[in-house]
Amino acid sequence: MRVIALFFYYFFARHLPSRNRWQDPAVRLRVFLCRFIFHSVGKCVNIQKGVYFGKGANLSIGDYSGIGQDSEINCSEDPVEIGEHVSIGPELIVYTSSHNYSSRALLIQQQGGFSKPVKIGNDIWIGSRVTIMPGVTIHDGAVIGAGAVVTKDVPAYAVVGGVPAKVIKYRE
User: Fold this and answer.
1) 118-151 as b/e: b if 16+ CB within 10 A
2) CB under 8 Å to 170, separation ≥6 — which residues?
3) 47: part of which helix (H) or strand (E)?
4) What does the pLDDT look like over 80-103, one tens digit per residue?
5) Which residues on adjacent β-strands are paired with residue 116?
6) In a 3-state reduction of DSSP, which class is residue 71?
7) How many angstroms separate the CA atoms of 67 and 41, rounded?
8) Residue 4 contacts by C-beta under 8 Å, 6 or more apart in sequence?
9) Residue 11 CB: number of other CB atoms within 10 A?
10) Torsion angle, CA of 142/143/148/151, rounded to 10 degrees?
11) Is the pTM of this model over 0.85?
């Protein structure tokens, strides 16, 4: 059933236009298919047009959370957990794997890679075109500014932005 759901998602449902609401018929179809694909899917989830997640088996998304249009979540090796009440803008990129490059004696291609899970807590707002690198945990209540590249854990209730992302302030 999972393979069939992946087929229908990538060749049909992923391309349907939709409004930014979980009640939209195209969103409901995408979420229905993702229930067979993802590790877990909460209630009232919003998956917008064009979202890519590979095979998706290591992806979990909580209640009242949404993934913005044309986002890419690479969770093929390690899991990506998205908590509850998470708002994600368009074109998010999440990586769970990367290359080793520390040795100057070897070509980068010969040094292999590594993989680490990504965890996104609850009540989080992630702006558009954010990149989240492997091993990052974004703690509850954080806000990630548009265009940020998140390379380190984000503290609870922090507002971060920039390349690499740094704490700008804390929510009161």
Assistant:
1) bbbbbbbebbbbbbbbbbbbbbbbbbbbeebbbe
2) 155, 157, 158, 159
3) strand 46-47
4) 999 999 999 999 999 999 888 888
5) none
6) coil
7) 12
8) 36
9) 9
10) 0
11) yes
| Nearest-angstrom CA–CA distance, 115 and 58 | 13
Any idea how long the chain is?
172
> Residues with catalytic annotation?
99
pLDDT, averaged across the chain: 93
pLDDT in tens, 97-135: 988 888 888 898 888 888 999 999 999 999 999 999 999
Whether omega before 17 lies within 30 degrees of 0, making that bond cis, reads no
Residue 100 — φ and ψ, nearest 5°? -80, 145
Domains and CATH numbers, the chain: 2-100+112-170 (2.160.10.10)
Q: At what angle do helices 25-37 and 2-11 cross, to 10 degrees?
A: 150
User: Could you give the angle at the alpha carbon of 165 between the alpha carbons of 85 and 95, nearest 5°?
Assistant: 65
